[in-house]
Structure formats: structure tokens, C-alpha cells
Design brief:
The protein is mainly alpha-helical. The chain contains 4 helices and no strands. Helix 2 runs antiparallel to helix 4. The chain is rod-shaped and about 185 Å long. The chain starts with a helix and ends with a helix.
């Protein structure tokens, strides 16, 4: 929108300058073609002063645009400075996020090693438990009660009860060890999944903040470039208007000299006419 407005203003200013130059050429040519009267020269001076005033009005408008752009540019530069400071802080934050990612990567690496060991332990405990289960199935004809009732005396009964208790404890420990190994693997897998998700979130946040920060800085820099270009264009038109104004002022001085000469000639003619009239009478 600003570029379109600038283009229209510059085009109008150039056309106005060309028109004034054409009028100047016409005035200069006419003044050379014949000796104009003082009233004609005064009319030309009035027209030139009017053109000078119009030029000054346009110059004021252009200068106002330049001042406005300078003010906007100052605000954008201030915003750019704030963005640069924000960039410094954001970079520190990005460094912290990157450190978190690196730490979690290290934790995940070590956890994967521990998880491999835990899975091996789980496989080992499961195999022990399954081996015992298969052995119990093969000896299904021999129950704990049969072992106890096969005692020959009270002392033998106590021994067999202790043996059965040890076997039952051993079987329970095997099952508990397998369950513990299985739960340990599940817990470690859950922790590894949480760490992975945390790291993915950190990476996403890192990329998004980088992209947003770069976009903000690029936008501010591009706006500054565009405004500097607009200011240069306005200054160019302002200089052209100033040159035209100087030419008009020079022509006004020339016309004022012609006016003085014309008035002097007219006064001399009037005095001569009066003198001739008085001689006649």
C-alpha cells in the first residue's frame, strides 16, 4: 500500500515539474519574442510566484512524508533492537533446550543399555520359572501331600515338611523373580517412552522458536530496507522539486528586472508624452 502511494506521489510530482518546466520555457520564449508591458510582466511574475508556492506546498508534503517515514523507521529500528535483545535471550533459551535434549539423549542411551540387560534378566528368570513348571507337570503324580504322608515316623515327617516348605518357597521365589524382572522391564520401557516423548517435544519447541525468531527478525529487516528505499525515492523527488523551485526563483528575479526596466521605459514614455503635450500647448 505504501509503495503504491509513493509511486502515485512521485509520478504526480514529476508531471508537475515537467509542466512547470514547460511553462518556464514558454515564459522565457515569450519574453524574448517581444518587449512586454509592465502589466504583462507582473502577471507573469504573479504566475511564477503561484507556481513557486505550489512547489513549496508539494515540498512540504514530501518532507512530511519523509519525516513520517523517518519516525516509523526509528520505531522499527527500536523494535529491531528489541528483537535482537530478545534473540540473545532466546538463543540462551535454545541453548538450554539443546542441553536438555543432549542430556536426555545420554539418559536414553544408558537406559537402552540397562533395558537390554533387564530384558536378558527377564528371559533368564522366565526360563527358570518355565523349567520348574515343566518339571512339576512331569511329576504331577507326586503331590506335596504324598510326600508328607510317606513319612515313616514323626522325625521323618518333620523333615519332609521342611523339604516341602523349601520347595514351595523356591517355587514362589522363582515366580516372584520372574514377575519382578517383567515389571522392571515394563517400568524401564515406560520411562524410555516418556523420555523419548519429552525429547521430541523439546525438539519441536526448539525448531518452532528458531523459525519464529528468524521470521520476526527477517520481517523487521525487510521493513527497514523498504522504508529506506521509500525515503530515498522521496528525497529524489524533493531534490527535483527544489531544483525546479530554484529555477522559478531565478526566473522571478529576471522578470522583476524586466518589470523594473518596463516600468522605467513606460515612465520615460509618459514623461516624454507630457513634455510634448506641454510644448504643444
Amino acid at each position: 500500500m505504501r509503495n503504491r502511494k509513493l509511486f502515485i506521489q512521485i509520478t504526480c510530482a514529476i508531471l508537475a515539474v515537467l509542466m512547470i518546466l514547460g511553462l518556464l520555457s514558454s515564459v522565457i520564449g515569450s519574453s524574448r519574442a517581444y518587449a512586454a508591458s509592465s502589466s504583462t510582466i507582473q502577471a507573469e511574475i504573479d504566475e511564477l510566484n503561484s507556481q513557486k508556492s505550489d512547489i513549496q506546498d508539494r515540498m512540504d508534503e514530501i518532507q512530511a512524508e519523509i519525516d513520517s517515514l523517518d519516525y516509523e523507521k526509528a520505531n522499527v529500528l527500536e523494535k529491531k533492537q528489541i528483537l535482537d535483545e530478545k534473540n540473545t535471550l532466546a538463543q540462551q533459551e535454545l541453548d538450554v533446550i539443546q542441553d536438555q535434549i543432549d542430556i536426555i539423549d545420554g539418559l536414553m542411551y544408558n537406559m537402552n543399555l540397562d533395558l537390554e540387560d533387564a530384558r536378558e534378566e527377564e528371559d533368564y528368570q522366565r526360563e527358570r520359572w518355565l523349567t520348574r513348571v515343566r518339571a512339576m507337570e512331569e511329576d504331577s503324580s507326586l503331590s506335596y501331600l504324598q510326600v508328607v504322608f510317606a513319612a515313616t515316623d514323626f522325625s521323618d515327617l518333620l523333615t519332609r515338611l521342611d523339604l516341602v516348605n523349601e520347595v514351595m518357597t523356591y517355587d514362589a521365589d522363582l515366580e516372584a523373580d520372574y514377575i519382578s524382572a517383567r515389571e522392571n522391564v515394563e517400568d524401564m520401557e515406560s520411562q524410555a517412552e516418556e523420555l523419548f516423548e519429552t525429547n521430541e517435544a523439546n525438539r519441536t519447541e526448539l525448531e518452532e522458536k528458531k523459525a519464529q525468531l528468524e521470521a520476526d527478525i527477517d520481517a523487521a529487516s525487510q521493513l527497514i530496507i523498504e522504508m529506506e528505499s521509500d525515503i530515498d525515492a522521496y528525497n529524489l523527488v524533493l531534490e527535483e522539486e527544489r531544483q525546479t523551485q530554484e529555477e522559478v526563483e531565478a526566473l522571478i528575479v529576471e522578470k522583476e528586472e524586466e518589470l523594473a526596466e518596463a516600468k522605467a521605459a513606460e515612465e520615460a514614455a509618459r514623461q516624454a508624452a507630457l513634455a510634448a503635450s506641454s510644448v504643444t500647448y
